[in-house]
Amino acid sequence: MPLVECGTDRVSIVYLIGLTGGIASGKSTVARRLVEHGAVHIDADDLARRVVEPRTPALAKIVEAFGSEVLRHDGSLDRQKLGDLVFGDDAARAKLNAIVHPAVRELSSKLIAKAERENPDAVVVYDVPLLVEASVDHPFDLIVVTNAPRRTQVKRLVEERGYDPLQAEARVDAQVDNTRRLEIADVVIDTDGSLAHTVSQADALWLRIAEERARK
Q1: Rounded distance, CA 186 to CA 38, Å?
Q2: Using CA atoms, how far apart are residues 158 and 203, in angstroms rounded to an integer?
Q3: What is the pLDDT of residues 22-39, one digit of tens each?
Q4: Do 4 and 120 touch, CB atoms closer than 8 A?
Q5: Could you write out the DSSP letters of every residue in the chain?
Q6: CA 157 to CA 179: how far, in whole Å?
Q7: Alpha-carbon dihedral angle through residues 177, 182, 183, 187, given to the nearest 10 degrees
Q8: Phi-psi sector, 7: left (phi>0), alpha (psi -120 to 50), beta
Q9: For a 10 Å CB count at each end of the chain, is N or C smaller?
Q10: pLDDT band at 53 (very low <50, low <70, confident <90, very high)
Q11: pTM of the model
Q12: Pairing state of beta strands 142-147 and 15-21?
């Protein structure tokens, strides 16, 4: 049983899945399928946006670190400007991560605890693209990695998201090498085939979890 750090020392009986994978590797497809089966979905990218909304402590720290030019006229974060500042600059990116990652960790813990209160038997899928890079240390019951070759990731970014090919390659290459994700995986879902193949693997994963929990 995992321990969820939510302000009190108590045992959680939610089943916590860490879902990760490179950009355009099929994480959203797998997450949607698990939600269709009844899982609770928490999206780290969404949390990263929420913790830097206007008047949040994290946004104030970002302005202090990078200057007011990263703000729009309405006081919200200009993510494009901030991204331009940190892209390719390891020191700047580390400074930003030191602000954002703890805030996301705190909020995700609260949401996991909320899911537990609402349904102690919940299966929670925490969708974390940067699980390896950010050293996310939630007590996961299972780490699931979606895996697709680099060429497939680049092709999807170009065809499905409208990226320029060189831009797509840069986005893929900027992330941690997928071998590091595979090293920590309990389950690898191959997303290089058809959508039906990916979905069938998600279905099999759900069945595995149900059978595992039934034995406890």
Answers
A1: 21
A2: 28
A3: 999 999 999 999 999 999
A4: no
A5: -PBP-SSS--B---EEEEEEE-TTSSHHHHHHHHHHHT-EEEEHHHHHHHTTSTT-HHHHHHHHHH-GGGB-TTS-B-HHHHHHHHTT-HHHHHHHHHHHHHHHHHHHHHHHHHHHHH-TT-EEEEE-TTTTTTT-----SEEEEEE--HHHHHHHHHHHH---HHHHHHHHHTSPPHHHHHHH-SEEEE-SS-HHHHHHHHHHHHHHHHHHHHT-
A6: 20
A7: 160
A8: left
A9: C
A10: very high
A11: 0.86
A12: parallel
Q: Which domains does the chain have, with CATH numbers?
A: 15-214 (3.40.50.300)
Beta bridge partners of 88: none
Q: How are beta strands 142-147 and 123-127 bridged, if at all?
A: unpaired
- Over residues 80-117, the pLDDT tens digits come to 899 889 877 889 999 999 999 999 999 999 999 999 99
- In this structure, are residues 124 and 15 in contact, taking their beta carbons and an 8 Å threshold? yes
Spatial distance between the Cα atoms of 110 and 148, rounded to a whole number of angstroms? 32
Burial 178-214 (b: 16+ CB within 10 A, else e): beebeeebebbbebeeeeeebbebbeebbeebeeeee
- First-residue to last-residue Cα distance in the chain: 10
Give the span between the Cα atoms of 90 and 13, in whole angstroms: 38
